[in-house]
Amino acid sequence: MNNKVQSFFNDKKKVKDMTLMAMFIAIIIVMGFVPFLGYITIIGISVTLIHIPVLIGAVFLGRKGGIILGITFGLTSFFRALTSVGLDYLFIFPWVSILPRFVFGLIIYDVYILLLKILKVRLIALVISFVLLTLIHTLMVLPLMISAFPLALNLPDVASTIESGGEGLLSFMQGLNTFDAAMAIIFSILLSNGLIEAALAGSVGAIVADRLLAIFKKDETNDSDDMEGEDIASID
Question: What is the DSSP letter of 84?
């Protein structure tokens, strides 16, 4: 009977994981394409909120789930960029939109588990890991955006689309031709958009994840008790 019980739990976990995966993918897609839901545009660049369901989903679904959600995040950013203007249009380059989101999804679960082992308190581990991971995500994306400037400036269609996002934006990009200037824009965006995104992830995202983990853990405990009772009854 132990084998049957184990098989039951394995099948139930697979169904639960598939359901959660579908739910989080749907949330990411909806947030990606509904205006002002997943991205809030401020002065030509968007404050990203989609990273929050990616963070929460990866905590539940592990490394593989995090990768899938991260790639979904990147793909929504890529397709959204096709109809965007300003700096957001730079996300048409896959190494800007998809690559950093793949790495982001890859490391979420491991960073959370590491901090949980060190700190021992789930909510604190979630808050710190979500803030840290959001800042890492921003620090990955911004240099890759700037690395796309030369290519964007040499492609007339891309350059004109970027210019339509705000007066002087193309000239601004052309002026970022030194390492110091690039570092200045990275630092300024990190202090504005990056800190807003990190604060939202560490407050809203961490609290939601903590409550959901508590609910799921309680359900799993109840299921385990029920199955153990059925197993004992069948042996008797």
Answer: -
Contact 128, 115 (CB under 8 A): yes
φ, ψ at 98 (rounded to 5°): -105, -45
Q: Please report which confidence band the pLDDT of residue 234 belongs to, taking 50, 70 and 90 as the band edges.
A: very low
What torsion do the CA atoms of 68, 65, 136, 82 make, to the nearest 10 degrees? 20
Half-sphere exposure of residue 47: CA atoms within 13 angstroms, side-chain side? 16
Alpha-carbon span 10 to 12, nearest angstrom: 5
* Greatest alpha-carbon span in the chain: 81
How far apart CA 198 and CA 138 sit, in angstroms, is: 9
DSSP notation for 23-46: HHHHHHHHHHHSTTTSEEEETTEE
CATH of domain 2-235: 1.10.1760.20
Q: What is the pTM of this model?
A: 0.81
Least confident of 85-89, 144-148, 155-159: 155-159
Q: Where are the domains of the chain?
A: 2-235
Dist CA 194 CA 208 (whole Å): 20
3-state secondary structure of 213: helix
Residue with tokens 């697979």: 14
Cα 173 to Cα 35, 60, 101, 105, 224: the distances in Å are 26, 40, 24, 29, 58
